[in-house]
Amino acid sequence: MLQIAEGMRYLHKRGVMHRDLKARNVLVELFHPHPVFKNEGCISSVKICDFGLSKIKTASSKFTSPHVGTTFWRAPEVFKDEAHDKKYSKKADVYSFAITCTEILTGESPTFEDILMTDLYRCITEKGMRPPLPCSCPGYLAAYLQKCWATLPKDRPPFSEICRMLRHLKGLLIRAGSDDNFLFSSVKDIDLEEMAKHLGVKWCIDEILKCGDNDKVRLLRTASKSKVFASNREFKRKLVKVGDHFANWRGTKHKYCLAAEMFSIGGFLRWPRANWKLGLLYEFGLGVPMVDEEYAVRLYHEDTTASASVELGRCFKMGIGVKSRDNNLASFHFKKAVDRQNKSGKAIQCVVELIDIVANGSDEELYDIACKRLSDLSTLECEVYFHSYRHWILAGPNEINIKTLIDALANPRTLDNRKYIITKLLHEVIQACDFYVWEDWVDHDGKCSHYALSIIKAGGVEAVVQLMCSIVISWIRK
Hints:
Blueprint: H1 2-13, E1 16-17, E2 26-31, E3 42-48, E4 55-56, H2 76-79, H3 91-106, H4 117-125, H5 139-148, H6 159-176, H7 182-185, H8 189-199, H9 201-208, H10 213-223, H11 227-230, H12 233-247, H13 256-268, H14 274-284, H15 293-302, H16 306-318, H17 327-344, H18 349-360, H19 364-378, H20 387-395, H21 400-410, H22 416-432, H23 450-458, H24 461-477
Antiparallel strand pairs: 1-4, 2-3
Helix pairs in contact: 1-6, 6-8, 8-9, 10-13, 12-13, 13-14, 14-15, 16-17, 17-20, 18-19, 18-21, 19-22, 20-22, 21-22, 21-23, 22-24, 23-24
């Protein structure tokens, strides 16, 4: 394949288009032929032949016939009836090269079973039908061949790039030897960088995520050393997502050590949420050598998300990882979190995850941690100073978290002891609502709104009683 690509690169460089490239038009010279099977042996060199349909590329060159090339090797644009009115493109040879490669990989000519010749054009251009590639074809090569036979000519790479890719692939094959997983068995950062240039960062990430956990971490660590990946937003977002997968906050099987490494890499690349997540692991001693609350506070400081600001406010309010409690700094960070929440219009992520763990989590240790953090936030009513912040942080924009809590109460799978915690949290949030938002809870006739009725239906009787007391208090305030 590399020698064919080199030959086509040579032709295109001199303005020659083959227009009928296929395996039958490639001569093969065997080195040390097999003593019994004369047609088998080591390939020494290949030569491209049959230039009967070739044409010199000029500014005015056009098709001389609508039937250029062989049917199954023709590019979609060559199939068009008006092809003789269009300028011929070198990218049509690239398409034919990709089909030729399938011949080499399968040992058979390309065919489309149960497809009539009259329907072939529609199947190729509209349905994107192409010859199947064998399972033994390396994923890197398969993805690149799919790029070479793209429907649109502009999406196909030139032969100069194809040659570079095939030379790189040859090096990977030699380095990996007989390893089935050759693509990732001995890959280096420069290899991943080359793959990203040819196939895109997204393809590389998707392939890496298909690997086992240890290989996944090693490859993501390797990729982070490359500028192509380190500057890619999708790559950094995936690092945190993989870290969350390893941490498995809602489940029972955790790989905190691997999660810590993913968050650490994400934090080094300055991706939001990474340092906040890593700080949580250090604060509670999950997957790290020891509990280090001071380092956790430093990590929260380095993060730019509203969740990190909430954690900082909590730490300064409760005196966690800091020299002493500081209500001024706590208020500053809570205000920053609320401002960011209002700007985004979305609930603060840490509160959403805490509510999810309390309602649906199956790990008792994480459940206890979530209850403690929510308790730290809900006790802010002891200080008038934090009164409004507590509501906006816990309730979320448009009281979206309250709706989530009500749904958790109504869920028959929620355990009774957790319903008690959820009911208590509902009361805390409701009590923190100032009278400007009571129209969401009381209708114009002074009766309970659909929110309150939803809580009654969900079984949160205690929350409703507390709610009614709070309503009376709010009327007195008015």
